[in-house]
Design goal:
The chain is α+β, with helices and mostly antiparallel strands. The protein contains six helices and eight strands, in the order αβαβαβαβββαβαβ. The protein is globular, with a radius of gyration of 23 Å. Belongs to the phospholipase D family. MitoPLD/Zucchini subfamily. This is Mitochondrial cardiolipin hydrolase. One of its GO terms (biological process) is piRNA processing.
């Protein structure tokens, strides 16, 4: 009688555990399935458009710029920037804040444009954001950004790996005065190819040495 009671108890516990495991897997599978894929196109043009206040900028900016800054400020774990030229102050400030917040930030720039007027290279160097380049007769003309792709193959509900890519250089001229386009996507097959390209360049390119002038 006693053994029969123990057997029933063990069977009950096993049944509850099995049911809980099945329910857990179903719930997380459903959540993963229900997680929306991101595929957004952001167009920039030189035609005057209404400007708006934004939490991402001290100045009024266009809706397109606001959407771009929304994604650039989104990383939780990592952001890798591969950009021909980067001088937009709102984007530079966003990358600095991400680094201070503990997000891993890496930047690749074209050698000829690394010290262009308004570039954030010295500010990056000052707080420890690594920047790399390759001195060459050829341009490093890529314009893409990878967000949280360090967690691309990790089951993680609190972040969505993204890629930002298009014709847009991250400059004031580009976001306010040119016809440009940007695509933001969470498609893993596409992201992985650009992730491989970034890692390849990161190994090939060299750290930028910023010479600090000591006061006499």
């Amino acid at each position: 009688m006693f053994l029969n009671s123990i057997s029933k108890t063990l069977l009950f516990v096993f049944t509850v555990a099995l049911a809980s495991n099945i329910a857990y897997k179903f719930y997380h599978k459903k959540r993963k399935k229900d997680k929306p894929e991101i595929n957004e196109v952001i167009m920039f043009c030189n035609v005057a458009s209404p400007l708006k206040h934004s939490k991402y900028s001290r100045c009024k900016i266009s809706h397109s710029t606001d959407r771009l800054l929304h994604y650039i400020n989104a990383p939780r774990y990592s952001v890798d920037v591969c950009m021909y030229v980067l001088t937009n102050p709102d984007i530079i400030n966003a990358l600095l804040k991400l680094h201070i917040r503990g997000v891993k930030v890496r930047v690749i720039l074209d050698a000829d444009m690394a010290f262009a007027s308004g570039t954030g290279i010295k500010r990056f160097d000052k707080i420890g954001i690594p920047v790399r380049w390759m001195k060459s007769t050829h341009l490093m003309h890529h314009k893409f950004c990878l967000i949280d792709t360090s967690h691309l193959d990790v089951e993680n509900e609190d972040c969505t790996p993204l890629m930002i890519i298009g014709s847009l250089n991250w400059t004031n001229q580009a976001v306010t005065g040119n016809w440009e386009d940007v695509i933001v996507t969470s498609q893993k097959d596409l992201i992985r190819q650009y992730q491989n390209e970034f890692e390849k360049l990161w190994l090939q390119f060299k750290p930028i040495v910023v010479f600090r002038l000591n006061k006499c």
